[in-house]
Amino acid sequence: MKNKQYQLIIVLIIYYMDILNIMATMAVLWLHTSEYAFQYEPNNINWYVSLIIQVLFIWAVPIFFMISGANLFNYRNRYDTVTFFKKRIVRVLVPFFIWSFVWYAWNNFVLQQENWSIKGFINGMEYDTIQPIFWFFYFLIPIYISMPFLSVLATKDNKKVVEYIIVFYAIGMGIINYGYMLLRRTPNHMVNNVPLVLSTGIGIFFVGWYLHTFKMSKKVRYWLYFGTSMSIIFMILVTIILSGIRGETAREVYSVFSIGGFFIPLGIWVWVQKRFGETWQPSPNIAKLLRSLSGVSLGVYVIHKFLIVVIEHIFSLAPSSWLHLFVLPLVVWFLSVIIILILQKIPVVKRLLP
After folding, report:
1. Whole-angstrom Cα distance, residue 150 to residue 153?
2. Is 94 within the bounds of a domain?
3. Does the record carry Metal-binding as a key word (predicted)?
4. Predicted confidence band at 198 (pLDDT cuts at 50, 70, 90)?
5. Cα–Cα distance between 191 and 176 in angstroms, integer?
């Protein structure tokens, strides 16, 4: 009986993280179809709308990082370190190289932005200039490399140590580094020489593991909801004010590596965890659907920009239009999911999908 209860809890936890995964994937599309916010046009109401969308969905990638921390810091309970690295190479590293090459070819032959060469591809891979949204991988892969010792830290016995890392991350990355960004100053040597929680942003991975492992009280959840709400309001207002002063969109205000970027995903996480955790169990069909949609999330991430460019071109969609801001993300998500599900049926191709 005890083992059955344990298995049931594990299944339910997987469901709530599936929902977070799906939500984060859709949030990414809302971010990438509201980039009109980058063009500072204060006389156009749609600029304010696109800015609000940017802030509301800035939590997307941090949620992915948190899910990785929650799922992988305890990998030793499922398999050894060699198996862990094999799985990461197959599921992330190989697709990362393959899709970077696909994007490099697209940039050269379709968009005519690159000079085709092996050196150009290597430089693009090295400095993340092939597809900027792939910065996600440049954070994720070093964490995977560090996982053998990070997983030793992430245990219930080390709860206080993990709390220290999280608090230090929130203060260091969310306040100190964030302050430097807002002031447009280069962080000093002392700040730069604290790599564990500042340079790698590793704290957000520990946050995911911590929220996944320890149950939050009602009081803590409400404080996190409050922090999320205040962060959204702060980011919107300060972006508008600083943009007006500078005459350009102050994009760094709503950075994922800010105190607001820290609180917003926490509020989203604990709300979904509470709503779809122990008190909620989907029907078998819904459970299957959730697993399928969650399983295509990274694939959708790497291909959705293709669809955005193609649809913009075919329908001559202006980035500031309501269709671009509100309809395009839904259309692109639906088409991306269909494409990835089809590609997953092809034996050789499915190995190239993240």
Report:
1. 5
2. no
3. no
4. low
5. 8
Dihedral of alpha carbons 192, 196, 201, 207, sign: negative
In the predicted structure, residue 5 carries a pLDDT above the cut 60: no
Helix, strand, coil distribution of the chain in percent, nearest 5: 80, 0, 20
Structurally, the chain folds into a number of domains equal to 1
pLDDT at 171: 87
Q: Using CB atoms within 10 Å of the CB of residue 308, give its burial: 0 to 12 exposed, 13 to 18 middle, 19+ buried.
A: buried
* Contact status, residue 128 vs residue 134, Cβ threshold 8 Å: yes
Residue 120 lies in a domain: no
What is the span of the domain harbouring residue 52? 2-74+154-352
Identity (one letter) of the amino acid at 263?
F
Length of the chain equals: 354
Question: What is the torsional sign of CA 50, 53, 55, 59?
Answer: negative
Q: Over 50: is that where the pLDDT of 1 sits?
A: no
User: Token digits for 239?
Assistant: 């972006």
With respect to residue 32, please indicate whether it lies within any of the assigned structural domains.
yes
